[in-house]
């Protein structure tokens, strides 16, 4: 049976995430159908979900306006995998430290926006990520950092600060794993044994 993957498509690198999910699925022998999520009613049919970056206040407003926000929370509550990246991490966190962001609270962390600088300060760095044998070439663009980790597990740090975490079925990164051909973060989030993909949906 084909897995259905949703990519929240209100902002961000939608096609890049879709391509990475397809590659990751193919590497694991999985047939994956990717759907773009721009309105309510799609997420409940998804086995996997990617939540790309963009501008966190805008993303927060749009997913609530379109009826997507509660569906993302229900997706996680059902134990289905979610990968949240950059601004997706901010909106998915339990404390974005920004009253303009109506957070989802599915990752038990506090986040600092733009912790590594603005757009002109973008950079790439090799990260040691728990679950990956070789360093991952992480791209940071206006990246947040995680200030406080409560129930979540830290998967990677940069400059002494957490930049990738797992909290139950959720994997979240401060960087953009979709921007390079390396799909290992998507494999880790969606197809690793501990990622929460129910074998019954395969």
UniProtKB/TrEMBL annotation:
Any one GO MF annotation of this record: pyridoxal 5'-phosphate synthase (glutamine hydrolysing) activity
Source superkingdom: Archaea
Presence of the UniProt keyword Hydrolase in the record: yes
CDD domains given in the database record: GATase1_PB (cd01749)
E.C. numbers: 4.3.3.6, 3.5.1.2
Pfam families: SNO
Catalysis: reaction(s): aldehydo-D-ribose 5-phosphate + D-glyceraldehyde 3-phosphate + L-glutamine = pyridoxal 5'-phosphate + L-glutamate + phosphate + 3 H2O + H(+); L-glutamine + H2O = L-glutamate + NH4(+)
Keyword Hydrolase: yes
Swiss-Prot/TrEMBL keywords: Glutamine amidotransferase, Hydrolase, Lyase, Pyridoxal phosphate
Binding-site residues, L-glutamine: 54-56, 113, 141-142
Residues at the active site: 86 (nucleophile), 176 (charge relay system), 178 (charge relay system)
SUPFAM superfamilies reported in the protein's UniProt record: Class I glutamine amidotransferase-like
GO biological process: L-glutamine catabolic process; pyridoxal phosphate biosynthetic process
Pathway membership, UniProt: Cofactor biosynthesis; pyridoxal 5'-phosphate biosynthesis
Family as reported in the entry's similarity comment: Belongs to the glutaminase PdxT/SNO family.
PANTHER family in UniProt: PYRIDOXAL 5'-PHOSPHATE SYNTHASE SUBUNIT SNO, PYRIDOXAL 5'-PHOSPHATE SYNTHASE SUBUNIT SNO1-RELATED
Protein purpose: Catalyzes the hydrolysis of glutamine to glutamate and ammonia as part of the biosynthesis of pyridoxal 5'-phosphate. The resulting ammonia molecule is channeled to the active site of PdxS.
Subunit annotation: In the presence of PdxS, forms a dodecamer of heterodimers. Only shows activity in the heterodimer.
Identification of the protein by name: Pyridoxal 5'-phosphate synthase subunit PdxT
Gene: pdxT
